[in-house]
Amino acid sequence: MLSERENIQTESDQANLSEEEAGEFEKVEEFQIHPENRDSQRQEDSEEFSEPERQEPVGLEIPSVGVGGPVEKVGILDNGQMGVPDSAEGIGWFEPGVKPGEQGNAVMAGHVDSRSGPAVFYELKEMEAGDEVHVTDEEGGTLTFEVTKVAKYDRREAPIEDIFGSSEGRHLNLITCTGTFNQEYGTHDDRLVVYTQLVEDESEKQNAQQKERPSSPENVEIRGNRISWHAVDEEEVIGYRVYVEYADGSSEQVDSIATYERKTYISENVGEEKHFITAVSRKGTESSPSEKK
């Protein structure tokens, strides 16, 4: 269905992280990891920040134009073109590429018409920026994508890299034929591409971030020029930040204390200016301020 091209290539770029040993401790942002915990910390970080596993798509729905149906896998034909379902109502997901929701460009294709009339993607030409596309997976989950643009290309000039290539975002591109059917070549003259991007639920993100915030340090005490506090007994906490609050209401971070270090800060300003402490997680999430003393 796609224009003649030599090949479709999908790439996944991996960043190679180098590790440098510097003295007795390894620096992680402003906090240090105790040598005894270094290996387990690296393993936890790897698991925490790995790409979430997405499931294969099994269904597609576009409410704005009444398009929908089951999704099947398609690959690359012998001539280098993307395969399409045999059925006029079938929707094909390009399996050699990425899954919907993963970083990159996931691609689905469907016929625009058949000998008997309109096919599954006939109404794609009516889509507009802002329309939603829903993809269901084999475990019953649903991802929502929002249309960013709809474009028509000559079948010989479709931007293959933009449609199938790598991307920093999480996109789903829908392809079908459009324009006049060319009897000589047995295909339509043009291609229609609907570009979409994954919609992330802001409320869910905020709720998740709120849940990830560590608890505030407690039992903050001042003795002379020394301020101390109790450790926050949570595995995610990697350190503490000490702030001074000035008379005008502004505040400034004055120290960083790792979890294995003594929970104490000494300064001639302690007792004269108010101070407060926050706990910081491995993800960089900061707790609410402790009691100000």
From TrEMBL:
What residues sit in the active site?
A: H111 (proton donor/acceptor), C177 (acyl-thioester intermediate)
Basic and acidic residues composition bias: residue spans: 24-44
Per UniProt, which keywords does this protein have?
Hydrolase
Q: Which Pfam families does this entry report, sorted A to Z?
A: Sortase
- Report the InterPro entries cross-referenced here: Sortase (IPR005754), Sortase_dom-sf (IPR023365), Sortase_F (IPR042001)
Region Disordered: list its residue ranges.
1-66
A Gene Ontology MF term for this entry? hydrolase activity
Which residue stretches, if any, does this entry annotate as coiled coil?
none
Superkingdom, taxonomy of origin: Bacteria
Keyword flag Metal-binding: no
Protein name, please?
Class F sortase
Its source organism is Alkalicoccus saliphilus
Q: What is the lineage of its organism?
A: Bacteria, Bacillati, Bacillota, Bacilli, Bacillales
